[in-house]
Specification:
heterodimer; A: mainly alpha; two-stranded antiparallel ribbon; globular; B: mainly alpha; 7 helices; 76% helix; 0% strand
C-alpha cells in the first residue's frame, strides 16, 4: 500500500515536472499559437460532434478553457519578456504573415485568456442542448473561431494579417450575435452591427494604406508593421492616418456617434456572447488604437491637438453612455450603454496620454496610458461578470426588464453576492478594481499644472470634472440595477418561479469576481507590469518616485501628491464592520425578528408601491431632459387601470443618421427617375454618352 | 508577307465597298421587316469581308486574309443562318414597329454621319494607311447601328443592330490600322457568336414569360414606385 502511494507520488511529481518543463520550454508566442490550434481543432470537432445524437455538446465549452489557460499564461509570460516574432509563409505568395508578440499584445492576450476562461465555464452551464444540437454545434464553432480571430488580431504584425483577422472577428461575432436569427429584431440588430463594422474596416484600410506608403513600396514590404514604424510621412498624412484609425477602431469600440450598434446588438445576443463582445472585443479595438497611435505613428509624432479631440470625444462618449444607461430599463441594454461609458473613460485616458506626450511630459503621458490599459482590463473583467449575471437572471426569472424584477437576492443568493462584486467594481468603490483605474485616470488629469498653455489646461481640468460626474452617475446607475433587481420584492403580480443559476454558471462568475478582487487589491503589481508596456512602447515609465513606495502603496507620481493602498482600505473596512457588528451584538441582545420593512401602519401594501427602474431615474431624466428624446404617457389620477410608459430614444439617430439616410434616399429617388424600364431609353443614354465622349475627344 | 500593291484602282474599289456598307446601314435603318434586316446584315458582312480582302491585298498584311475569311464564314453564312432560323421558329419575320418614324430616323442618321466624318478628321491625319479616308464610314456605321437598336421595338432587332455595330468597328479598325491584332479579332468573333446563341436562348425565355418579344413588356420588370 505504502509502496503504491509512493509510486503515485513519484508519478505525480514526474507529471508536474514534465508539464512545467513543457510550458517553460515554450516561448509565449508558441503558447499563443498552441492555444489557437487547440481552439481550431475544438471548433472543427464540435461541428462533427453536433451530428452525433444525444451527445452533450454544451460540455464542449469546458475543454475550450484549456486554450484560455494557455493564452493567459502566454500573456503573463510575454509581459516580461522581449518581443518575439515569426514569419509564416501563408497568405499570398510573396506576402507572408508576420506574427509578433510584445508586451502590449501580451497584455491584451491576457485579457482574452482571463475573461474567456470565465465565460467558457459559464457557457457550459448556460446553453442547453435539448433540441438545438446543430445550432449549438455551429455556436461552438463560431465561438472558438471568434476567440482565434481576436488572438490573431493581437499577434499580427502586418496590416494584411491584421485586417484579415479583424474581418474574420467581425464576421464570426456577427454570426454569434444573430444566434436567435428567427426573430426579426435580432437580424436587424445584426445587420446594423455588420454595417458599422464594415464602415469601420474601410477606414482602417485607408489608415493602414497611408501608413504603409512610408517606405518599402518597391518590394511590397511596406505592409509589415516594422516598416510602418520606420516610415517617413508628412504631418498631414499622419493626421489622416490617426483620425482614420480613431474612426475605424472607434466604430468597433462604440465611441460617439458610432455607438448605435451596441445597444441594439447586446440585448439580442446570448448573454455569454454579449460578455465576450463587450468585455473582450471592445478591448481589441482599444488595442488597435494603442497600436496605431503609440507604436506605428509613434509618440514623437503625436500632437497634443489630436489628444484634445480624443479627450473631448472620450468625455462626450462617457457622459452620453452613462446618461442613457441610467434611463434604460432593459438590463442588457443598460449594460451596453454602460460599456459605451467605460470605453469613453478608456479613450479619455488615451487622449490625456497623447496630450502629455505631445506637450513633452512623458511621465504623466505614461500614466495616462497605464490608466487606459488598466481600465481596459478592469472593464473586461467586471463587464463580463455583469453580462454573465444578466444571463443568469434571464434564465432564472425569464426577465431582462428591470421594472418587473425585484427580490432576486432571495431566490439566487450566491449569484447576488457575485453580482454585488461587479456592481461595486463598476461603481468604482474601493478596494475593488474599478476604483484603481478611474483614480489613475484622475491622477493623470490632475497633472494639469504641468501644462503651459491656458487653453489646454482648462480643457483638461474640465475633463477631470466631467469624469467625476460620470463616476457619480455610474454609481447611481448601478445602485439602480442592484436595488431594483435584487432587493425589494418581485414586481409582477403572480410570484414568478425562480431558481439559483447552475453550478458552472456560478463558477464562471466566481472566476471573474475573484479577478475583480485581485486586480483591485494588488494594483502595485499590475501597474509594474503595465509599466513594462509603456517602457517598450515609449521608452519611459513612471520614474523612481512611483516605484520607491513598495508593494503596499500605489503612488502614481510622488507620495506627497497622492497614494492609495487598497489593502489598508480593505483592512479598515473589515475592522470597522466587525467592530460595529460586535458592538451592536453586545449592546442589543434582543432576539432577531423578521418582518416587512417600513411597514408603518399601512393596512395594504402591494409590490407596485416600490420604486421602479423608471421612477428611480426620473430625476436624471428631469435634469438632463435636453439630452433625451422622450415619448411619455402619464395616466390621469382618476384612471382605474393606469399604464405608465416612458420611451427614451437615442438622439444620435436623429442628429447623425436620419440626415444621412435622407440624403441617400433623395439621391436614390433621383437616380430612380433615370430608370424608366424602357430599353430604348437606356440605349439612348449610352448613345448620347458615346456621342458626348467622342465630341470631347474631338475637341481637346 | 506579300508585297504591297499601291494601285489607285484598288483603293477606289475599297471606297466603293465602303459606300455600299454605309448604304446598307441606311437601308437597315429604313427597313421594317426582320427577315429583310437579316438579309441586309448578310450583305453588309459580305461587303465588309470583300473590303478586308482588298485591303489585305493592297497592304500585303497576310493576317487580314484570315480576318476576311472569318468574316465571310461568320457574318455572311453562320450568323444570318442562326438569326433566320430563330426568327422563323419564333415567328417574328414580319413587320417591326418603330419608335420613331422612318423619315425622322433617316434625318437623324444623316446628322450622325456628318458628325462621324468630322470626328474622323483628326484620326485621318494621324493614320498612315492607304484607305484612311474610310475611317469616317466605319464610325458612321457604328453609330447608325446604334440608332437601329434604339429605334426598334422588337428584341430581335437589338441583336442585329449589335452585330452590325461590330461590323462597323471591324471596318474602322481595318482601315485605320490594318486591323486589330489577330488575337483580339478572334476573341471578338467568338464573343459575337456566343452572344448570338445566348440571345437566342434568352428570346425563347422572354417569349415564354411575356408571350411576346415586344420591348414594352420589359417595363414590367422595373420596380414599382412607392
Amino acid at each position: 500500500m505504502f509502496f503504491l502511494l509512493d509510486r503515485h507520488k513519484r508519478y505525480d511529481c514526474v507529471l508536474v515536472q514534465g508539464l512545467s518543463w513543457m510550458i517553460f520550454s515554450f516561448s509565449p508566442l508558441d503558447l499563443s499559437l498552441l492555444a489557437i490550434s487547440f481552439w481550431f481543432v475544438l471548433a472543427i470537432l464540435s461541428l462533427f460532434l453536433s451530428r452525433i445524437h444525444g451527445f452533450h455538446l454544451c460540455r464542449m465549452f469546458l475543454p475550450g478553457t484549456a486554450g484560455s489557460i494557455l493564452l493567459t499564461m502566454s500573456g503573463f509570460l510575454g509581459l516580461d519578456g522581449s518581443p518575439q516574432a515569426k514569419t509564416i509563409p501563408l497568405g499570398l505568395p510573396g506576402l507572408p504573415f508576420h506574427l509578433r508578440q510584445d508586451a502590449l499584445s501580451s497584455f491584451f492576450l491576457l485579457i482574452i485568456g482571463f475573461v474567456s476562461l470565465g465565460i467558457s465555464i459559464f457557457s457550459s452551464g448556460y446553453f442547453k442542448d435539448d433540441h438545438h444540437g446543430k445550432e449549438i454545434g455551429f455556436l461552438l464553432f463560431q465561438y472558438h473561431l471568434f476567440l482565434i480571430s481576436m488572438t490573431l488580431v493581437l499577434l499580427s504584425s502586418d496590416s494584411y494579417l491584421f485586417l484579415l483577422s479583424w474581418e474574420s472577428m467581425a464576421m464570426t461575432s456577427y454570426f454569434l450575435v444573430v444566434s436567435d436569427h428567427e426573430k426579426d429584431v435580432v437580424r436587424q440588430a445584426g445587420f446594423l452591427y455588420l454595417l458599422l463594422a464594415h464602415i469601420g474596416t474601410l477606414a482602417l484600410f485607408l489608415s493602414f494604406g497611408i501608413l504603409s506608403s512610408g517606405g518599402g513600396l518597391q518590394d511590397f514590404s511596406g505592409y509589415a508593421f516594422e516598416q510602418m514604424e520606420k516610415g517617413q510621412h508628412s504631418s498631414l498624412a499622419l493626421t489622416m492616418a490617426f483620425f482614420l484609425a480613431f474612426f475605424g477602431f472607434g466604430a468597433k469600440a462604440g465611441i460617439l456617434p458610432l455607438h448605435i450598434w451596441l445597444p441594439e446588438a447586446h440585448p439580442v445576443a446570448p448573454s455569454p456572447i454579449s460578455a465576450l463582445l463587450s468585455g473582450v472585443m471592445l478591448k481589441v479595438a482599444i488595442y488597435g488604437m494603442v497600436r496605431v497611435w503609440f507604436d506605428l505613428i509613434g509618440i514623437h509624432f503625436l500632437s497634443w491637438k489630436w489628444g484634445m479631440v480624443v479627450l473631448a470625444v472620450g468625455l462626450f462618449t462617457a457622459l452620453f453612455g452613462i446618461l442613457f444607461a441610467l434611463t434604460q430599463n432593459d438590463l442588457k441594454r443598460l449594460l451596453a450603454y454602460s460599456s459605451i461609458d467605460n470605453i469613453g473613460i478608456i479613450v479619455m485616458g488615451l487622449g490625456l496620454s497623447i496630450i502629455f506626450f505631445g506637450t513633452g511630459h512623458p511621465v504623466p503621458g505614461a500614466l495616462g496610458l497605464i490608466a487606459a490599459l488598466y481600465h481596459s482590463l478592469n472593464h473586461a473583467v467586471f463587464k463580463g461578470l455583469l453580462f454573465l449575471g444578466a444571463g443568469s437572471i434571464l434564465h432564472a426569472s425569464g426577465e431582462t426588464n428591470l421594472n418587473r424584477m425585484g427580490g432576486l437576492i432571495r431566490s439566487m443568493p450566491q449569484t447576488a453576492i457575485l453580482y454585488l462584486v461587479a456592481i461595486l467594481s463598476i461603481s468604482a468603490i474601493p478596494p475593488l478594481n474599478g476604483f484603481v483605474s478611474e483614480w489613475l485616470t484622475f491622477q493623470t488629469a490632475l497633472s494639469v499644472p504641468l501644462l503651459e498653455t491656458g487653453g489646454i489646461r482648462s480643457m483638461v481640468a474640465l475633463s477631470a470634472a466631467g469624469l467625476a460626474l460620470v463616476s457619480a452617475l455610474t454609481a447611481m446607475c448601478f445602485v439602480k440595477v442592484y436595488g431594483i433587481g435584487f432587493l425589494g420584492v418581485p414586481r409582477t403580480a403572480p410570484m414568478p418561479k425562480r431558481h439559483e443559476s447552475t453550478i458552472p454558471e456560478r463558477l464562471g462568475m466566481l472566476w471573474l469576481a475573484s479577478g475583480c478582487l485581485l486586480l483591485g487589491c494588488l494594483p502595485t503589481i499590475v501597474v509594474r507590469y503595465l509599466e513594462t508596456i509603456t517602457i517598450s512602447l515609449t521608452g519611459g515609465g513612471l520614474g523612481k518616485n512611483a516605484n520607491g513606495a513598495g508593494w503596499l502603496w500605489l503612488v502614481p507620481q510622488s507620495a506627497r501628491r497622492a497614494s492609495y493602498s487598497p489593502i489598508v482600505f480593505l483592512a479598515v473596512i473589515v475592522v470597522t464592520t466587525l467592530l460595529t457588528f460586535l458592538v451592536i451584538r453586545i449592546l442589543f441582545r434582543r432576539k432577531t425578528r423578521t418582518s416587512a420593512s417600513w411597514n408603518c401602519g399601512y393596512p395594504a401594501r402591494t409590490s407596485r408601491m416600490q420604486d421602479t427602474a423608471d421612477s428611480f431615474s426620473q430625476p436624471i431624466r428631469h435634469f438632463f431632459s435636453p439630452v433625451y428624446k422622450m415619448t411619455r404617457h402619464l395616466p390621469l389620477p382618476t384612471d382605474e387601470k393606469p399604464i405608465f410608459f416612458v420611451e427614451i430614444d437615442d438622439q444620435s439617430w436623429f442628429l447623425f443618421y436620419r440626415p444621412i439616410q435622407k440624403i441617400v434616399e433623395k439621391m436614390s429617388a433621383l437616380a430612380g427617375k433615370l430608370q424608366t424600364g424602357k430599353i430604348s431609353v437606356y440605349l439612348t443614354y449610352s448613345f448620347l454618352t458615346l456621342l458626348f465622349l467622342l465630341f470631347l475627344v474631338k475637341s481637346p | 508577307m506579300l508585297p504591297a500593291h499601291d494601285s489607285p484602282f484598288g483603293v477606289e474599289m475599297v471606297n466603293l465597298l465602303g459606300a455600299f456598307i454605309l448604304l446598307v446601314a441606311f437601308a437597315m435603318l429604313a427597313s421594317r421587316r426582320t427577315l429583310s434586316l437579316i438579309r441586309l446584315f448578310a450583305f453588309q458582312g459580305f461587303f465588309l469581308s470583300m473590303s478586308i480582302f482588298l485591303v489585305a491585298f493592297l497592304s500585303g498584311e497576310s493576317n487580314l486574309y484570315y480576318s476576311a475569311f472569318f468574316t465571310l464564314v461568320l457574318k455572311v453564312i453562320l450568323l444570318p443562318w442562326i438569326l433566320r432560323d430563330l426568327s422563323q421558329r419564333l415567328k417574328i419575320g414580319g413587320d417591326i414597329e418603330t419608335l420613331v418614324n422612318v423619315p425622322v430616323t433617316m434625318i437623324i442618321g444623316i446628322g450622325v454621319v456628318v458628325f462621324s466624318f468630322s470626328l474622323a478628321e483628326p484620326i485621318l491625319k494621324a493614320a498612315s494607311t492607304v484607305t484612311r479616308s474610310l475611317i469616317g464610314v466605319g464610325l458612321a456605321c457604328v453609330l447608325l447601328s446604334f440608332l437601329v437598336m434604339i429605334t426598334r421595338k422588337k428584341a430581335m432587332t437589338q441583336i442585329i443592330g449589335f452585330l452590325s455595330m461590330e461590323n462597323g468597328l471591324l471596318f474602322s479598325a481595318t482601315n485605320a490600322t490594318y486591323g486589330m491584332p489577330m488575337v483580339v479579332e478572334l476573341a471578338i468573333a467568338l464573343d459575337v457568336l456566343i452572344g448570338a446563341i445566348i440571345f437566342g436562348i434568352f428570346f425563347f425565355q422572354i417569349r415564354e414569360t411575356f408571350e411576346s418579344l415586344d420591348l414594352k413588356y420589359f417595363e414590367k420588370l422595373k420596380e414599382d414606385e412607392e
